[in-house]
TrEMBL record:
This is Anti-sigma factor antagonist. It comes from the Bacteria. GO terms for molecular function: anti-sigma factor antagonist activity. Pfam families: STAS_2. CDD domains: STAS_anti-anti-sigma_factors. InterPro entries: Anti-sigma_ant, MlaB-like_STAS, STAS_dom, STAS_dom_sf. Belongs to the anti-sigma-factor antagonist family.
Length: 107
């Protein structure tokens, strides 16, 4: 897993899972704490995430809200879009361009 960017936009790539969760949490919390306005999290280079990775993103979302910021997801891969829909988190998280629920393949 890697994260690059600044306090306004971060690109997350690789696997966001239990092994990388602590490092990801630290990077996201620092970005939230050090900036202002929307924090864009570009997930277009993310290969996969597990429940722990999703928890890290939700934690960053909550922290951003407490800091008066908004976490915005960009470039969410289709398989991760399906997970967000299945967990109904697409209704809570800000997703750039939204998720076209009707266009996602049924599983």
């Amino acid at each position: 897993m890697y994260i690059r960017g600044d306090h306004a936009e971060l690109v997350v790539g690789g696997r966001l899972d239990v092994r990388s969760a602590a490092d990801a949490r630290t990077a996201l919390h620092s970005a939230v704490d050090d900036g202002a306005g929307d924090l864009v999290l570009d997930l277009s280079e993310l290969d996969s995430w597990d429940a722990t990775g999703l928890g890290v993103i939700m934690g960053a979302h909550r922290r951003a809200g407490r800091c008066g910021r908004r976490l915005v997801l960009r470039g969410v891969p289709p398989q991760m879009q399906r997970l967000l829909v299945a967990t109904r988190l697409h209704r809570i998280l800000a997703i750039e361009g939204g998720i076209g629920v009707e266009s996602l393949p049924r599983v």
